[in-house]
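Hey, can you fold this one?
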Amino acid sequence: MPVSKKKKIRNFKTLNLNFGPQHPAAHGVLRVLLELKGEVIKKIDPHIGLLHRGTEKLLESKTYMQGLPYFDRLDYVSMMIQEHGFCLVLEKIQGVNIPFRAKIIRVIFSELTRLLNHLMSLTTHALDVGAMTPFLWGFEEREKIFSFYEKVSGARMHAAFFKPGGLSYDIPFFLLLDIYRFCKQFISRIDEIEEFLTLNRIWTYRLKNIGVITKKFISDWSLSGVMLRGSGICWDLRKIDPYELYNFINFKVPVGVKGDCYERYLLRIEEMRQSIYIIIQAINLIKTGPINIPTFQIKFKNQFFKYDMEKIILQFKRFTRGFLIKPGSTYVGIEAPKGEFGVFLKSIGENKPYRCKVRAPGFFHLQCLLQLSKNIFLSDLVTLIGTCDVVLGEIDR
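Sure. Predicted structure:
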């Protein structure tokens, strides 16, 4: 029989694939259901909630000081910045102004926390793509920053160092010298990471023209942080709506052009350089003085106690009752490493919040994967999730 010369048309069936939650490239406990045609993604369905702890609801039954450690555990890569948002919203609703020394120390440790976050984001992203060396370099630097955490709070991660009205403890003078020396040597480590990656042929091939975000897409999906600035929009809450002492500090806001994964990588590198610049300026501005204000302390009428037991009871009341916050509601947004981290607080004049709502930037960035991942390769999804810099602690809450 004659052989037909017509080419056989192959019909590819779609394959449903489960990505995560145990996969290291899922950056936590993210589960993504993929619909693939060959190696091309046709549809994705992100599943969250595997880390859900009901933080916002738990805060309604905790005093304000008891609720503070919950913010350390939201974005567990940017611990002190999460505390910062909660402290600022309480200070705003009370209408208080904390001492200069407390403000400048908050700025220093907020920028150290930004370095912590970007080191984790960049190096694990590189590890997902296939580069192991930056991961080892970055985690060595993270250990040094953790040692600064430990020296001021006794804890390496969940510090509870910022508190309403100021700080939990003052910092010793020698620590500022250690931070200054760290900043000087850290610049060369950024150079090493950039020398390894920026012009690397494999790195650029894997990141360029992947996950391109337009300005309209940003407004439609409420993106912030590097995801916003990578597309050419200069928006940084430290400049637009300054808090603490950022309006007295000179720094640049890096802005991209194309809005792809490679631009976002370059912006995070530059943001680390700017954070070093901010820290050095803050160290030069620091002054001696108080680190707390008495507004957030409980006052009792009796100043004289006949027995020591009465002092013990007073101390017990301080930690169990907590302090009262004026009735009202307000919102504070800060420039966290991942984007705008916001806290909405409603008080009815009690020692516990009536409502506390958290705006997590990663939640909005994770949503946009639905659109950005259409018709890209499966390997590019790993790049896309890495550059979105999602942490499921703040997303699940």
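The chain has a mean pLDDT of 86. Let me know if you want another pass with a different chain boundary.
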